[in-house]
TrEMBL record:
GO terms for biological process: carotene catabolic process. GO terms for molecular function: beta-carotene 15,15'-dioxygenase activity; carotenoid dioxygenase activity; metal ion binding. The keyword Metal-binding applies. It holds the Pfam family RPE65. Fe cation binds at H175, H237, H513. Keywords: Iron, Metal-binding, Oxidoreductase. This is Uncharacterized protein. The keyword Metal-binding applies. Belongs to the carotenoid oxygenase family. Its cofactor is Fe(2+).
Length: 521
């Protein structure tokens, strides 16, 4: 990597919205004509409040900005607009964070009388900066806490907020899963005076003539999974679903209820991270659930080594076992490395991400003594009936928290995954998009060729394609040099060669996740 001044202030200044007409990009190369549709991304965009000289503590705490890339042949138009969440509105009025964020504690809210008001009960942020998903012909954002909110595709205006308390939940993952029939499933947490539990809910498909609010009232609880320890319950960011099973992974990254109650009693403003513990002495526990009956498998299934994860890449059944692929990290140090001050100082530019794409194999036969997948993943039955899973590494070290696949292969046997290291520019996967052939172990990459952070790719399948990898990867590419030029790249997923790039004066914002929606609106 060339020698540069590691000052990324320009990438993490407050984002500027585009005009209502958007900005037409300058395209170099040729975008396949079959790509007709829109990409939506969400990610933190507002970090600083100059009038009070206040900045959030962590990249994760920035307020959501939605980017919309409308693609029609070689014409690419970009819109950027802030989600008008309650969290952003309150922060704007106060000049600082008011609702509890991940690493930034709340400040007292100033009332119309001029008095400060602070509640010992943490108010959950509705800042929809983590994921954007498509359900019932509508676009929604979420942060994986309690709320999801509609975004109007035509102008990116902010629509109705939905509260998962309506489902009896105190939190849900930001990654709901949509079945082939249009049913949406999600994993939530319910904390009550008698204990905590995980709950899988489903919302039936919404017909075009049906009111979405009425459809929500038809939600059902598929399964309830009590936690093994009331004092510590695992933080769930995603889960897996095959044709016949759900898979949850309880991890050593937990909410400490004793600590939570103590902090609430003291009344001190704290961030969400202050309620958590990393308990590596506790191994990850895999929970499988029959999708049709909701029955929870009682057999204990644990990992050989503890790991932290956010995103389950895929989960599918093959013969008499389940395959579960995740990007696993040895600990939660990635959080500290992506504090806003660390990113702006360019510390990530000289670091390597710690994630490895790992495969676990879970036998469906509870009496299987040893199961070894062709990848090398192994399951062993202990004398006490516990199954221990030994993972196979499907990549080298260096991925950042996620890898993506062709969305048509979610819950099905697949061959290819694609990943980046995002903020971390050193290591095996820095400054590039890497394709992983999970059958042969081969890797191939599109390399940015410069000092760039490469965002998570979005896979657009060729509607007439037959091969799994017949599609185009689209990703934001962000120049860490102040005088540099960020762009959006289009890469052939078969050859990993660049097809085109689109440049904008008001560049796309760094994002967490995105999705492609074919032309519908």
């Amino acid at each position: 990597m060339s020698e540069i001044n590691f000052d990324l202030t320009h990438l993490f200044e407050n984002q500027q919205e585009t005009s209502d007409s958007g900005e037409i990009g300058t395209v170099k190369g040729n975008i396949p004509e079959w790509i007709q549709g829109t990409i939506f991304t969400t990610g933190p965009g507002k970090f600083h409040f100059p009038e009070t000289k206040f900045s959030v503590n962590h990249y994760f705490d920035g307020y959501a900005i939605i980017c919309k890339l409308e693609i029609s042949g070689n014409k690419v138009t970009l819109w950027k607009k802030y989600e008008q969440s309650d969290a952003l509105k309150k922060a704007t009025a106060a000049g600082k964070t008011v609702l509890t964020e991940f690493y930034t504690p709340p400040s007292p809210e100033v009332t119309p009388s001029g008095l400060s008001r602070f509640s010992i009960i943490p108010k959950i942020s509705d800042n929809g900066h983590v994921n954007v998903f498509f359900f019932a012909n509508r676009i929604y954002t979420t942060n994986g806490m309690l709320h999801f909110r509609e975004i109007i595709p035509s102008d990116l205006s902010t629509g109705v907020k939905y509260d998962c308390n309506a489902f009896g939940l105190t939190g849900v993952t930001p990654h709901p899963l949509i079945d082939s029939d249009g049913t949406m499933y999600n994993l939530g947490t319910a904390v009550t005076a008698t204990g905590s539990k995980q709950v899988i809910i489903k919302i039936p498909p919404v017909h075009p003539t049906e009111n979405f609010d009425i459809a929500l009232q038809k939600f059902e609880t598929v399964s309830t999974i009590p936690t093994s320890n009331f004092l510590y319950f695992s933080i769930a960011h995603s889960f897996g679903m095959s044709d016949n099973h759900f898979v949850l992974i309880d991890q050593p990254f937990v909410i400490n209820m004793r600590k939570t109650l103590r902090l609430m009693i003291t009344g001190s403003p704290v961030a969400t991270i202050d309620y958590t513990d990393w308990r590596p002495e506790e191994l990850n526990q895999f929970v499988t659930i029959d999708k049709n009956s909701g029955q929870v498998r009682k057999q204990k299934i644990i990992s050989l080594e503890p790991f932290f994860y956010f995103n389950m890449v895929n989960c599918y059944q093959e013969n008499d076992h389940l395959i579960v692929d995740v990007v696993a990290c040895p600990d939660i140090s990635e959080f500290q490395k992506t504090l806003l001050k660390n990113i702006i100082a360019g510390n990530c530019c000289i670091e390597e991400a710690s994630g490895i794409l790992k495969r676990f194999v879970i036998p469906l036969n509870e009496n299987a003594e040893v199961l070894r997948d062709t990848s090398g993943a192994t399951a062993e039955l202990g004398v006490d009936g516990t199954v221990t899973l030994i993972a196979a590494s499907m990549s080298k070290k260096g991925l950042y928290l996620n890898a993506i696949i062709n969305p048509k292969f979610k819950g099905k046997k697949y061959q290819f995954a694609f990943g980046t290291s995002v903020f971390f520019m050193n290591g095996q996967y820095g400054r590039r998009i890497t394709k992983f052939d999970l059958l042969t172990g081969n890797e191939s990459s599109w390399n940015s060729g410069g000092d760039y952070m490469v965002g998570e790719p979005i896979f657009i399948p060729n509607p007439n394609g037959i091969q799994e990898d017949d599609g185009v990867l689209v990703a934001g590419v962000f120049d860490v040099r102040k005088e540099g030029k960020s762009f959006v790249v289009f890469v052939c997923a078969i050859t990993m060669l660049e097809l085109a790039r689109a440049e904008f004066q008001n560049a796309m914002a760094v994002y967490y996740h995105g999705l492609f929606v074919p032309s519908l609106f």
